[in-house]
Design brief:
The complex is a heterodimer of chains A (301) and B (343).
Chain A (H helix, E strand, L loop, with lengths): L1 H10 L1 H31 L2 E2 L6 E2 L5 H6 L2 H35 L2 H16 L2 H12 L4 H8 L3 H9 L12 H25 L3 H9 L4 H30 L2 H6 L6 H9 L5 H24 L7
Chain B lengths: L6 E10 L2 E11 L4 E5 L6 H9 L6 E6 L2 E2 L10 E4 L11 H11 L4 H14 L15 H13 L5 E5 L7 H18 L2 E6 L2 H7 L2 E6 L2 E6 L1 H6 L4 H6 L4 E3 L1 H8 L5 E3 L5 E4 L8 E13 L3 E8 L4 E7 L15 E7 L4 E2 L3
Parallel strand pairs in B: 3-8, 3-9, 6-7, 7-8
Antiparallel strand pairs in B: 1-2, 1-4, 4-5, 9-10, 11-12, 12-18, 13-17, 14-15, 14-17, 15-16
Chain lengths: 301, 343
């Protein structure tokens, strides 16, 4: 019986392909694209503010609301944070990913991999709240800062308009630090995977042809690892764009996109505006990918 | 006549952990030579090449390039270039950009770069290919690009790390001839790493045979083949029959280990007679293998030793030799073809 089925599939490759791809494709189409489509449709509806009911007619008025100062500030704030987190993660992740891929012994490598992956085993919420304690006024970071007599510098930093706050745990700086930490593995792993694929003798060939370490990095290693950096930045960027837990726990009262979506679809029942807010990151990511492709980031794939 | 050797190794050792990949070797390579480093894998030949290029540093000893101690200089400060085993062409650059890489690094003006790239493309017969990506080229074409990318920098020494290993036999033989011709035309030193003894014999002015991190023998291809220094060289460069112990004493008249090449032994009928300076020994044809160009016979001597004898297939009916299995034969060789081996 099994033999017959197997033979049938061998003789009908199209059927076996359909069986193979059917379930995941079906899932993707219905659940993933379906929900995206529902979002898109909802974003073109509007909320009647008097009745509190959703008016199911095509309108761009909900999108127009995104450009009101309060809402637009949220988008700018979130995108700036996502960009800062992505850049910082990329800068910190690259050396580590490089070391893991090119220099480390097998043993060190598995140890480092474990170190990078281990935090992902614990709950995201637990880690965020742990950081809340670490960064609190009475937390260990403040303790160290006082130990080194740097309290003055910290106070000045926290007094900066826009990014400051009453303590590290209640300021955009704290949000930034925790975002950088939380998404770091998602940057390290793709860069590491990209670097693993760059044969070691490319760097030797570059050195052989007269390039010092810096030039070899700029002309060979970085361009070839760029798809990995882009992949990592898609993770860190989009995860930061959509997150609402970290700013909720550590930030001040100023909203990020995630919080805006959360409150509009929840308490105020303004599903169309929540949907429109959600489309903003989608649009930003599409533009980002198109620019990256234009710059040749995927040429080495 | 140049004052200095192109490359000199002075008591060079390279350890990886406790293992000596290269064990105190001395080597002198003259300017303009086609010099091969020949040996099985793990014999230290590639490590030696990598130390000339600067990818590895010697643990002890010194390496000189034209009299200058370069033992601990980085690759980019050495007047040598390398053709890698798998070519290591940069996949995100086209052929022209790959070849121009060294010039681009040295900030040679764009116009000169283009001219020199064109010259190189002509040299390796790849005109008009500069816009192709390495992935669109065949193995042989990639090899030529790697060669052009190295040669455009006018290296004083060109290092080649088994560059023909990935090519099929026909293409390999063609590239052997081309490489040799190229080297003679350019007049620069080529150092060629290979595990293929035939390749080394075909192309080299001189050969160094490596085994277990040491150089076993240095010499011209003919010296190496006709006068192997020891058992390893006798066995690695071509095939040899080794005579040792009692049998050697009986056949050669002296104690020691001796080698004789299979093609130097004549296969005669059992009643053939030998002249004064020839040695004769009787045996039984244990195996006959037809190999097209020649036939290989395995002859079992009395006392158990097997000798390999090869004979060119001069007749169209050479296949009939296969039927001679189990026949009694007499082997005869000229005594001057027997060589004493060092230990």
């Amino acid at each position: 019986m099994l033999q017959k089925a197997s033979t049938y599939l061998y003789q009908h490759p199209k059927v076996s392909l359909a069986l193979l791809l059917g379930p995941p494709l079906g899932y993707m189409l219905v659940v993933y694209f379906g929900s995206l489509l529902a979002l898109l449709v909802n974003s073109f509806y509007r909320l009647d503010t008097f009745t509190g009911l959703i008016v199911r007619e095509f309108t761009l008025s909900t999108y127009a609301k995104l450009f009101q100062k309060a809402n637009f500030d949220i988008i700018v704030r979130t995108v700036s944070m996502a960009a800062a987190v992505t850049l910082t993660d990329a800068i910190f992740a690259f050396p580590l990913a490089y070391y893991m891929a090119k220099r480390a012994s097998k043993k060190t490598k598995s140890f480092l991999f474990l170190g990078v992956m281990l935090p992902l085993w614990s709950s995201y919420l637990v880690r965020v709240y742990a950081w809340k304690l670490i960064l609190a006024k009475e937390g260990i970071v403040s303790w160290f800062i006082r130990l080194f007599g740097l309290q003055g510098a910290l106070d000045q930093l926290l007094a900066l308009p826009g990014i400051g706050g009453s303590s590290l745990a209640l300021s955009p700086i704290g949000v930034f630090l925790v975002f950088c930490y939380i998404w770091m593995p998602y940057m390290i792993l793709p860069i590491n995977a990209a670097l693993e694929r760059v044969p070691r003798n490319f760097e030797e060939a570059s050195a052989d042809l007269g390039a010092n370490a810096l030039l070899t990095f700029a002309k060979i290693t970085l361009p070839l690892a760029l798809p990995g950096v882009i992949a990592g930045s898609i993770f860190t960027f989009s995860l930061t764009l959509g997150d609402f837990i970290v700013p909720l726990s550590l930030g001040n009262s100023k909203f990020f996109i995630g919080q805006a979506v959360y409150s509009h679809q929840g308490t105020s029942g303004n599903i169309p505006l929540a949907a429109a807010f959600t489309m903003a990151p989608v649009l930003i990511m599409v533009i980002y990918l198109l620019v990256a492709r234009k710059l040749g980031a995927f040429d080495a794939l | 006549m140049e004052l200095y050797n192109a490359v000199t190794f002075f008591k060079v050792s390279k350890y990886f952990g406790d293992v000596a990949a290269v064990d105190e070797i001395d080597l002198e390579i003259k300017p303009g030579e086609f010099f091969s480093l020949l040996g099985p894998s793990g014999s230290g030949k590639t490590t030696s090449l990598r130390m000339i290029a600067g990818f590895d540093q010697p643990t002890r000893g010194n390496i000189y390039l034209f009299g200058r101690d370069v033992s601990h200089l980085p690759p980019y400060e050495r007047p040598v270039n390398t053709v890698f085993q798998d070519y290591a062409l940069f996949p995100h650059m086209n052929v022209g950009e790959n070849i121009a890489y060294g010039l681009m690094i040295k900030r040679v003006p764009k116009k000169e770069q283009t001219e020199r790239v064109q010259k190189m493309l002509a040299l390796v017969q790849l005109e008009g290919m500069e816009k192709r990506k390495p992935s669109q080229l065949s193995g042989g074409q990639r090899q030529r690009v790697a060669l052009a990318r190295a040669l455009i920098n006018n290296p004083k020494v060109l290092l080649l790390d088994e560059p023909l290993g990935a090519l099929d036999l026909k293409l390999r033989q063609q590239m052997q001839v081309e490489l040799k011709a190229l080297q003679q035309r350019l007049g620069i030193t080529f150092i060629f790493v290979t595990h293929d003894q035939e390749e080394a014999l075909t192309m080299s002015d001189r050969i160094a045979v490596f085994s277990q991190g040491r150089i076993q023998q240095i010499g011209t291809p003919a010296e190496m083949y006709e006068n192997p220094a020891n058992e390893f060289v006798a066995g690695f460069v071509g095939t040899s029959n080794l005579l040792r112990g009692e049998l050697a004493e009986r056949l050669v008249g002296e104690k020691g280990t001796f080698a004789i090449r299979p093609e130097k032994i004549q296969l005669k009928p059992a009643d053939a007679s030998a002249t004064e300076n020839e040695t004769a020994v009787d045996g039984v044809l244990k195996d006959v293998v037809y190999l097209g160009l020649y036939t290989r016979y395995l002859v079992e001597l009395e006392g158990g030793l097997d000798l390999v004898v090869i004979r060119q297939n001069l007749n169209a009916s050479s296949m009939s030799e296969l039927k001679r299995k189990s026949e009694r034969v007499r082997l005869i060789w000229n005594q001057e073809h027997v060589h004493r081996l060092g230990s």
